[in-house]
Amino acid sequence: MKKNRRLFGILFLICYLVTLSQIRLFCRVGMIRSRLPLLLLGTVGAVVCFVLWLLSEKTRRNLLFWLEWTVLVGGTLYFGAGIVYSAIPYNGALAWQIEEWMNQKKVTLEHDNFLESGVEGILTDLDKALELPEELYISDKFQVSFDRNGEIQSLDTMLYGKGKDGKKRSYLADYDRQRGDSMIVWIDREEQGEYEEDMRLAPMLELLEKAPWRDQQKVWEDAYGDVVYEMLYCGRRSFASGDGLQYVEGDADKDGKQEGSSNFSLLLGGGEFLGFELSFHMPEEEYVTPVRYMMEPEYIPQAALDQKRQEEQVQEAQKAEMWTIDQADGTMYYFLDEKLGWALEVADAAAGSRFYILKKTTDGGNTWEVCSQDPFMGDIGASQGLWFLDENLGFAGLSGASQSHAEIYRTTDGGTTFGKISLPVEQVTKLPASAEAYGFTLQDYDYMNMPQKEGDVLTMLVTTQAGESEGIVFQSQDGGETWEYMEK
């Protein structure tokens, strides 16, 4: 009997710990089906062995007894802690399941015919189940598709607004007709949040009411037959092309005035139109241009866009530690502080090479004046870098179109005049290890990288082309006026 008692106790502990380990794994990664056999076996074994242990003669409180209890308590705490940890957000399957129980709702889509009920029908079903805020906004888009009979096929949107408790509430809604007749909605409540006027949902409802999209549907139906149609609304958007744009009269911003221009031909001269827009298209017919209904479109000339882009680029350059490049026109900026800055501006370009002028600002980019009409002394190429150590001493780099050759230019008068840096290549006694492998000679090392500063020492790496990390090193102790070869 004593041996049976010991055997039942040991078997109980094994089955109990196996069961807890499977529960912990399930809580962390899920996959209940693969763990179910071992979980059932461990559970049944633990119950049977525990009952048999209780029915056996009373156990003496010897060393084995206390050891068994130590293992029991220790195992419970260890695996229990793992189960609790998996319930913490983002730490396991249990956390996601708890999140789903608390914040996911299934809402039946009763108004499932878009031609009959429109977006209002969808909102009615959501409001009935969730009590939506009165003023709704979209986080990214409102996308709904339907067939020729109007039956809604899919829905994808995230709405948000101020709840009755004054807090921001969001609703991530998803619907797929093939999955069933219910919308899956994730609900979240945020303590704070901005409400973007350009992302209000109300203009979409007005566009749907006033735009001739039903006539367009009939045209496409006659031409393409039984297809799926899609409505896409992303709030207030801008367009630089007039393809597919159609003007719709209405007061999208509800200020009592209908403003904007319907003359989309203005885009031929550049610029863009900005307004609340609703796209109507056929996803399966990707070569058919969507019809884009726009209400209260505002025309913004190209000059205004360029000015705004430059202001944004200046703000970015003021925060950056090194130079920045405007990808739109190739201008390179460097600011020493919030007020003092320089800009290498492309004056002319041909065959991959550019001619630059250097401008300077002392008021944070509000005004610029040309300080050098030819900072690279007649050379053309692509700007490699622009860097000033103080208001007078600075460096500018120019590389060839193939980026296999580059020169560095130095100024000591704030950019008014420049001189090309000449390095003492005659001092070089040893080429990098890779030179022999690739057959490089000293003449191949002609790509001068922008200097780096550490303390009072400037270091320049000379390589065979752009992007290499191994090359010949030169250093300067006097701000780049003279250079000395440094053998590694």
Structural overview:
- The longest helix is centred in the first third of the chain and has 28 residues, at 2-29.
- The protein is flat, with a radius of gyration of 35 Å.
- The chain has helices spanning 2-29, 32-55, 63-86, 93-103, 114-130, 202-210, 213-224, 302-319, 433-438; strands at 104-108, 137-146, 152-162, 168-176, 182-190, 229-239, 245-248, 272-281, 291-300, 324-325, 332-335, 341-350, 353-361, 369-372, 382-388, 394-399, 406-411, 419-420, 447-448, 452-454, 457-463, 472-476, 484-486.
- The strands form four sheets. A nine-stranded mixed beta sheet has the order 1-5-4-3-2-6-8-9-7. A five-stranded antiparallel beta sheet has the order 10-11-12-13-14, covered by helices on one side. Strands 19, 20, 21, 22 and 23 form a five-stranded antiparallel beta sheet that branches.
- It folds into five domains: 2-86; 101-195, no CATH class; 207-300, no CATH class; 303-417, no CATH class; 421-488, no CATH class.
- It is built from nine helices and 23 strands.
- Helices cover 31% and strands 31% of the residues.
- The relative contact order is 0.05.
- The N and C termini lie far apart (81 Å).
- The model has no long low-confidence stretch (mean pLDDT 87).
- With 488 residues, it is of the alpha+beta class.
- A hairpin with a 7-residue loop joins strand 13 and strand 14 (369-372).
- Helix 1 packs antiparallel against helix 2.
